[in-house]
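Worked example 2:
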Amino acid sequence: MQNRRSRTALAGILVALTLGLSACSETESTEEKYVSPNFNTETVTEAPKEGTTMTTEDPDVEDSQLSTAEPINSSDLETELSTNTTIAGTYENGAYYNPFVGLTIQSDSSWKLYDAKEVGEVTGLTEDEVNDLWYGVVSPYSVKTMTCAIAYKVSTGSNLIVSYINPKMYYMQNMSAREYLELSTRDYKDVEVRNVEYIGQVFTMASFPEETEGAGRRIQFAIRKSDLIVLLTYTLQGEDTLEDAADHVIRLITG
């Protein structure tokens, strides 16, 4: 019963990732407005341009103080990453590795990673369609959104989704990560959109207010990479904290 409710909630979150863009790129939308999990606060700063380097010494970038674990060097992994790892990343040794954005998600006794069949159940795709995305048969540049990974805390329903948004498919080719989050939060009051340093990079971060009991508290980190917007969407349930969930995300150093 818990799994069914959690997967229904996950499906709603995945729909929410693109509703903001859909509303702006279509004159009429038949999709229902998503009633969201979490976001709050109130400052906006200029986002860094893609390719620029910023650190916490920059006044417009804060230290997220998340994921303090030592970075993982891909060359030091017990089993080296497969040479045909795609843009979507790969699952190996009980972890998810994504060289495209430079992160790894570790699973343990409390957190698990969804397999292709489970991801399909919450995205409305078949297992084969999910594998086509993961193994590069279908490019993220040819679809509007792509779910690369879902990590899930079995006991509470908290989860982390790694997904890509392709602005070009919404006729917004030059949209930045900040602009995406500003669109996503435009219907919410007192929402903070800010730049933070996270897993060694500058992400734009937003926190949505919880609107529905049981929907969770949603926090998103967005960064633009090679014309795609990469989203890390945390949805927290009960007493779970962002710090606890983020502990499972570690910087992956490649090369």
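Residues 25-56 have pLDDT under 50 and may be disordered. Residues 2-25 form the longest helix (24 residues).
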